[in-house]
Amino acid sequence: MSVKKKSKAPGRTPMPEQDPEVRRRNFLEVPTGYTPEMAMQEAGRCLQCKKPACVAGCPVSVDIPGFINLLAEGDITAATRNLWSKNALPAVCGRVCPQEIQCEELCILGKKGDPVAIGNLERFCADYEREFGTGELPPKAADTGKRVAVVGSGPSSLTVAGDLVVKGHQVTILEAFHKPGGVLVYGIPEFRLPKEIVAQEVNFIERLGAKVACNQVVGRTVSLDELFEQGYDAIYLGVGAGLPRFLNIPGENYTGILSANEYLTRANLMKAYKFPEVDTPIPIGRDVVVLGAGNVAMDAARTAMRLGADRVRIVYRRSREEMPARLAEIHHAEEEGIEFHLLTAPTRYMGDARGRLTGMTCQQMALGEPDDSGRRRPVVIEGSEFDIDCDLAIVAVGSGANPLLTADTPKLRLNKWGYIDADPESGKTSMRGVWAGGDIVTGAATVILAMGAGRQAADSIHNFLTWGW
Amino acid sequence: MFTIVRREEMAEGTVILNEIEAPLIAAKAQPGQFVILKANEDGERIPLTMAETDAEKGTITIIYMVVGRSTALFRDLKVGDGYQDVIGPLGKPTHVEKVGTVVCVGGGTGVAVLHPITRAMKAAGNHVICIIGARTKELLILEEQMRAASHDLRICTDDGSYGREGFVTEELKDILDGGQVDQVVAIGPVPMMKFVSKLTAEYAVPTLVSLNPIMVDGTGMCGGCRVSVGGETRFACVDGPEFDGHQVDYDELMLRLQAYCEDEKACYEDYCRLHDTSTAE
Ligand SMILES: Cc1cc2nc3c(=O)[nH]c(=O)nc-3n(C[C@H](O)[C@H](O)[C@H](O)COP(=O)(O)OP(=O)(O)OC[C@H]3O[C@@H](n4cnc5c(N)ncnc54)[C@H](O)[C@@H]3O)c2cc1C
Ligand SMILES: Cc1cc2nc3c(=O)[nH]c(=O)nc-3n(C[C@H](O)[C@H](O)[C@H](O)COP(=O)(O)OP(=O)(O)OC[C@H]3O[C@@H](n4cnc5c(N)ncnc54)[C@H](O)[C@@H]3O)c2cc1C
Ligand code: SF4
Ligand code: SF4
Ligand code: FES
């Protein structure tokens, strides 16, 4: 780090990171965390604004100057408590929130220089408290005798479970997979969010008294009506947007073409990066193409690099400006040697006689008029076809609503895309006693938005359990 | 943990039966549905069809052929041991209705999958003829159960050591030539289902097959189980596992099943062991 004088406007304190040459072949976390000194230095940069602009940028209104002030005073326990009052998973959000378009975008310091590293500070508090804190549980209200079933165990469901158990209700989380955590365990890789952190967050909610039942595919193992028959008073659906999209172009069923969901689930949840130490295999590509440019695409590309690829290319039909991934992940991917082929769209895949992927034909695109999403629509440049070789393609072009649960529950009203229709304020669905939130309502979004929806629904459920529908 | 309460070996130890305590699944399961099992913390998620369920006892029964690393690991589990995870019931149940005469064709461990469907077809009031096949007599499974589940049981072995010498398709052709058949259900190695479907297409007899692509979650989340049916991509775990046999792209399925064979030769041998039981055209 530079030894700049700490005179007037000191620059943002960078978080140390593993060297790109080293980390591109290992699964350890990339940013290694602030030391307490670094955290104090960064906390000291906050101006403690009377009307803090940053708070408006946070979807759950974290009291940013408040927690930073407590941190600056050296009371990390109090700072973390303050965070918890708005955000149940600060260790996660500090790592994965797209801060550059949320809290940090609006920080006043960002007008002239670098905004306060709010995410880094949030992460520091939560990590420090987890390691050195007392582990003391927040106070819990007396048992109300009411029972709540929370379906899914992603960030949205974990928030609902934590909030309601503290209010004295009996909460059971029902998760389809064999491990709780949702996208936090099966999607986001170890090098960005260590699974140990998620496990500890889940453990915290269990210590508060919530039960976690895995291997429960609601809609198959048990239906919503049966849950009510079993005596649950309310149900929260936080089942995520678990339906992979493909491009529907010729050749998509060659082996060597995987959805990002499958690729990342094998790598993260099934720990296939340790194969053959574990039993689940994962295809190892030498020449890998990832289709798409969101967080999911970056995660897939960086995983492929870590699994030993010689070359990893991101192929994206729009331009750099439209790439939806967090800025930090795009930088990290570039540092790790991932190539970006923008304004490029595949039109078909090629394979050999044994049905294995060998390459794809792509077209060059140009940007036209803005489309419904407000982004400029990519249009084909005629006659621009060209072929590229690859032996593994990972499709990361978005996800939709998985119909497994909703098809089993005809009473639940859906919108035209198949997502659950829920009141944006309360999360109430068309079915009495049933709430929904997170990606299954909004479509694939962010961790913090899923948690925000969970908190609102938990309030509404609590009101219902106390006062009625 | 999901405890194993009964264990049997069949077909000279190449096929294993496990009855497992899984009351929630047993209460809901219907013929044609499957479970995903994982033996331990680092285990793979393996899909297997329920050959039997007992809602009162709270148990499900799986019958599987030992073909690779995970099924070999399963083989080593004793009564009293258990699976860390069992997930289900998954997939769509078989559509069972009274249509008249139904021929159920099973090959290899496919017979285990066919058993509950055969029983349901008979219970629905159909006249049920069953054909089961294996490479040789010792590899035949569930003969008595299939006899009880159907009105008429025919047996074929490739080497003629028991029943008719030859493939199940030959017996099926004779039945189709001999009289009215309203529906065929074929479950077994992919080539067998392919040739049965080819045959029944000539007779325009509706044919149901059960597909076994590689799966991960079994809930429609990963797309790893995609199969081409009637030119469209379907997810076998949620849209199936049963499909219209005349519409399935079997060649694609066979290639996709080989996705994870690192060592080509070992892969081929495994593949033969899994798929070679009753037809070799
Ligand atoms: C690879 C990847 C990277 C991402 N990176 C970021 C990032 O950097 N920053 C960010 O803010 N967001 C990121 N996101 C998005 C973010 O993870 C999601 O928006 C968020 O996890 C949604 O939370 P959720 O609680 O709604 O659902 P999920 O996290 O999707 O959890 C849903 C859970 O419900 C379970 N489930 C589904 N159906 C059933 C059923 N029928 N019965 C029982 N259980 C069921 C699922 O198994 C799953 O565990 C990323 C997403 C992915 C896939
Ligand atoms: C819905 C469904 C129901 C099934 N029901 C039964 C059953 O009742 N009895 C039974 O014996 N088998 C059944 N199978 C097949 C069984 O899942 C595989 O044999 C098993 O996964 C092989 O695992 P392995 O690690 O032992 O072998 P591996 O070493 O992984 O593979 C050995 C061979 O098996 C094939 N294979 C690998 N994984 C699968 C897979 N998931 N599905 C199919 N073939 C695979 C490979 O092509 C390879 O040639 C079913 C499969 C599906 C999808
Ligand atoms: S939760 Fe996310 S958006 Fe809110 S302050 Fe923390 S990092 Fe910023
Ligand atoms: S806007 Fe920036 S400087 Fe002001 S309180 Fe928020 S973080 Fe601190
Ligand atoms: S197994 Fe994943 S979608 Fe079918």
Question: Would you write up a description of this structure?
Answer:
The complex is a heterodimer of chains A (469) and B (281). Chain A has helices at residues 20-23, 36-43, 53-57, 64-72, 76-84, 90-96, 103-106, 118-132, 155-166, 183-186, 195-207, 224-229, 260-269, 295-306, 327-335, 403-407, 439-442, 447-467; strands at residues 147-151, 170-174, 211-213, 234-237, 243-244, 257-259, 287-291, 311-315, 339-341, 344-351, 357-370, 376-380, 386-389, 392-395, 399-400, 434-436. With 469 residues, chain A is α/β, with parallel strands linked by helices. A five-stranded parallel sheet of chain A has the order 3-2-1-4-16. A five-stranded parallel sheet of chain A has the order 6-14-7-8-9. In chain A, strands 10, 11, 12 and 13 form a four-stranded antiparallel sheet that branches. In chain A, helix 4 crosses helix 8 (118-132). The radius of gyration of chain B is 18 Å and the shape is globular. Mean pLDDT of chain B is 90; it is low at 275-281. In chain B, helix 3 (110-123) packs parallel to helix 4 (143-149) and helix 5 (168-178) runs parallel beside helix 6. The interface between A and B is large, with 40 and 39 residues. The complex binds flavin-adenine dinucleotide (FAD) (2 copies), iron/sulfur cluster (2 copies) and FE2/S2 (inorganic) cluster. One flavin-adenine dinucleotide is lined by residues 34, 44, 46-49, 63-65, 67-71, 109, 112-113, 212-215, 241, 257-258, 261, 267, 270-271, 274 of chain B.
